[in-house]
Amino acid sequence: MARQNKEGITNLFRPELRNALIDMSPNEIASYNKLVSAVQGNILITTMEGKTSGYQDCLLNPLMNTHAQKALNNLRLSCFGGARITPIVKERDIQSVLGLLRDLHSLEDVKVRVIHDLIRRMSTDQVSSCMRCAMNLQTFLLLPCACYLCTECMTNKMTKCPVCGQSFDVDDFQRLQPGIDYNWSWSGEISNLEDRLSPRIINDEEHHCNFLHESSCSFCNSVYSSCPKDETKASYIIEKILSLSGGSDIVSKSITSKDIGSTKSSSYLNEKRGHPVKIIIFSQFRQMLNIIGDRLIRRFGSHCIAEFWGSAKHYELQRFSCVEDCICLLLGKDGAHGLDLSFVTHIIFLDHIMDESVRNQVISRAYRLGASRSVIVEQLVARGTVEELIGKYSGSQTINDLREESRYAKKGSGQLRFLLQNVTLIRQTVPVVKKEEPKAKKPMKKTVRFAVSS
Fold first, then answer.
1. Which of 54, 137, 259, 355 has the most beta carbons within 10 angstroms of its beta carbon?
2. In 6-108, alpha helices (H)
3. pLDDT tens digits, residue range 354-398?
4. 31 vs 138: CA distance, rounded Å
5. Going from the N-terminus, what domains does the chain have, and what CATH number goes with each?
């Protein structure tokens, strides 16, 4: 018996795959750079060749695979946006660093005070400039000469300060670095998502607020709240939903032949033909779904958002499929298999799925027999981050290829090591304001006066 697959069916609508590069806000870039500095600093310090080896604590050590995976997950979570990450240095570690500078390296009080102020600024969201490349950061590598550099201005082969030229001992350099903890917080308050999705009981009746087409609920007079500006991915999705549902001025009411084929116009035409917009938002990270779910509920109301999670997931799925204004379903790994969602018009991936089979399973929820149109699959990518690195290599190289590129990788974990070795800081470019050139002065006409004799 011949096996039939989707590729052999000619009248099946193929999914439209798209990438959306999103520029992070300055605060999001600052938070991301703190984690990148921590990863780069760990690898640099623990791979330097001194009298004592620190490789046992290196993220590239296969025995540290759990910590390496957590570091990568933190980087990916910070790419979602909205996170505020504050470095914390304990007082005893501060005094230990200052004591080493005074006693072991015999530095002047002025230089010790400079390092003291630098460490204090780390915990108060104040930036300093790298003494070599002038990049503004919060965390730096400290040298025994009281110079401080970003992690990309040093290599594990250096034994001389690139700023002042003073030589240093590798073991002294390693011992000088303060222990830094990182405190996570978010730009907006995040409430329990299940409580937000559960209907409110008003006059013995269940009620879901709906802000899709109105700014306030006509039943309970609740008003929608906007998404914090620092959460760029959440803001992008909200604008996307508004444009697709016709809830903002982004969608033009007059569709021309030139507009057919674009995301906005085709969705508007689907509505006209009786196909309401239905969007799946997928993420492997539960915390991402909690954050985006909270923002969407605050903006559109619990009537418009459903979540396939917990004991009420089948009720939520039925509400998503039957209620026209319920336009968005939050989906995690639990819903990647077995669901028939052929009526879905859009799938948005909040993060890159490193397992291609899981990604294909999610797309197959809507890419099924019986679908009357192509599903638009959009991958959100934070520009210049590890997400862009994952997307660059996931389609062109296999895990085995990545393992060969990473000299420290073993036992099938090469992709993880490769990503940690190749993450880079995001260098914000300040727009150059061109000064207007002074206009050339017109040459003054010389007037010649003649003496008139009387």
1. 137
2. 26-46, 65-79, 91-99
3. 888 888 888 887 776 656 678 899 999 999 999 999 988 775 544
4. 9
5. 6-22+195-396 (3.40.50.300), 26-186 (no CATH)
